[in-house]
Design brief:
alpha/beta; 26 helices; kinase; transferase
Length: 836
Amino acid sequence: MTRERRGRLRVLLGAAPGVGKTFEMLAEGRRLLDDGRDVVIAVVETHGRAATLAQTIGLPEVPRRTTEHRGIALTELDVDAVIARRPEIALVDELAHTNVPGSRHPKRWQDVEAIRDAGIDVVTTVNVQHIESLNAVVEKITGIAQQETIPDAVVRAADEIEVVDLAPQTLRDRLSAGLVYPAERIDAALSNYFRLGNLTALRELALLWLADEVDSALRSYRAEQGIEGTWQARERVVVALTGGPEGETLLRRGARIAARSAGGELLAVHISTQDGLRDETPGALAAQRALVESLGGSFHQIIGDDIPGALVEFAQGADATQLVIGVSRRGRLMAALTGPGIGSEVIRRSGDIDVHIVTHAAAGGRIALPRITGGALGWRRQLLGFAVALAFGPLLSWIMFAFRSPESITSEVLAYQLLVVVVALIGGIRPAVFAAVLSGITLDFLFVAPLFTITVAHPLHVLALALYVVIAILVSIIVDQAARRARTAKRATAEAELLAAVAGNVLRGDNAVLAMVSRTREAFGLSGVRLLTAEGEVLASDGEPLADGRTTTVEVGASHAVLELSGDALDAPARRLLDAIVAQLSAAIEHTGLRETAKEAAALAETDQVRSALLSALSHDLRRPLASAVAAIGGLRGAHDLSPDDRAELLATADESLATLSTLVTDLLDVSRVEAGVLAVSSTRLDATGPVLAAVDELGLGPADVELALDPALPALQADPVLLQRVIVNVLANAHRHSPAGTRVLVSTSALGERAEIRIIDRGEGVPVERRDSIFQPFQRFGDTDNTTGLGLGLALSRGFAEGMGGSLTPEDTPGGGLTMVISLPLAGADTEDTE
């Protein structure tokens, strides 16, 4: 008997609710129905959206099964009815849905599996936050935990996965227009889950998850088809680690390469030999492994004796597009003795993979000045000159002795002369003189009669030997002068680059002193450099001083600072360059001092501005209540025939004026404490409901003025109850004052991650973006045309109080018009104690 074909599964994946998954599923169902396919709606959740509901018209629907749970009638997908109907295609919405207790399966995705087992194709929808492996990531992004999840394997096993994508701002616009949620849920949704940053991160998460799925399918296809070549469908960078000190440099370079393309992947691999005898540092490898993980990459360790082969094989198996290796740490002599090394072999075998060989010294960015002391030619070139003389002198003698004749003496002399010139060009004067003497003796011993004796029988032979030495010395002098000039030019170039960099640091002014101290240490090859004040305080330092105390101190201009150099003593050219650096360093110190003075002057100017505003406020805002109080008290004292009503009115006027005066003075004292940074905060665990209700009562607002949407499940927050109440009073008073008549101010509380948010939402004119910073400045009154509304300190105080409690006060647009003020405060931890 032939087994029945299992139904295919097509999943429409969305980054968030409202992107149009259900709409697209129904639209696909209508297209298939028009093509003559047998399509039914097994279950669909329209959530009251008119456009989604309109898509269901004309599509056959299998009636749902009704189940009673705790006295409530609920409807669920009827699996048996769908299987009995046996359509070609069933449309099943919300794959991660949890069924009512007592259903055939606990989860809807299990219902879908049963439908597919009956040979019915299924088109379904799911959001990225419901995928099990991404659930924790989504909670970290949005601050909301999803209770309904679906195993990754269920979605990955789908025959087709399609992302239903919508730009984050477009989704927010749809939400504001009421196309996703009802009006009463729009503000909370936009302010919490549907923030622009949240939606952007969720969108990227969905696309990357699908990219991983596509990549897995691609690997399976290549394995099934036996395709071994690399398909560069995605940027993957493999970094080869040896356990050496260059590992960190290689990893950071690889991470930068991977970051150049969206979805780039970083893989680090360390290859160990089977005998375990490779020179590696476990501690360094552990640190590099932690660095890989912090950079978002993965660490792999494999065993193989053929290191280049194992490395290339791993890179090809990972479909790598880039391979990063370090330049060999071997010296030239070792490289000459042991061959080109691993790098050349990796390049030869890499095929389509690009190989980057990173030079560690270049990556470190060290700048050192070439030294011009001692001989112009280094000892390496001199040793090479001696080696050439010792190697090619006997070889030349053997060749010429084998083919000698009475007429060949001239050629033999010129050949030895050429050897002397070559040695002089390579090694300078010492090996050239050695080659001249050696070749003269050899010429006399082998080619001048009597043979095989070192006898100078003729004065011309002595002259020839002398000419050999003179020619060698002359050529050596020319070579030495050329090398000295080249080294001088190289040093001059390095000095110019150093001075240009130092001058640039002074002009930029950002960390100029520290940058110049670091440049000085690197330029002169010192172990440590410190800049000290006259009192011994360290202004800047780089490196570590030597234990033997070898230090040189240099005074830095009129600043009375001292530059302490730890290392070998500097020669005369280096001291001249150091004088130039010290002059620039003195200018940098002076520049830093001027910047600090400018900051102090700016602070004084700002203080003076505040003082001027304060005096202006005192002259205007305090005059009215003070004058009213004086007039009322004077009337009470001077009149003896006042009626009880007149006396009561004067007392009320005096009481009101003095209360207003007390409030203004209190605000002035508070703002002065905030400006001085001496605000006293007594932080404790508290319920946000208490300060909100106290603020509403203090302002005398009723249900017609304020709508409360307080989250009863909001955890306790950490704040000062008195200061928090002042913040809410000030913000709520502003919101009520600017709200149109007949509209209510909405006050809501919610949790977002590890913080609580109190949102005060009005439907007024709002505040333009360019004015939002100025409304928090002292003595600013937005939209007021008189001086009867206070000193303009309310929002300034509110922000200062909020920041003093470790929170923030930020303005946002209210969807549909108005201003939303968000008071964000930290949630109290389980072990949080009261602080003061």
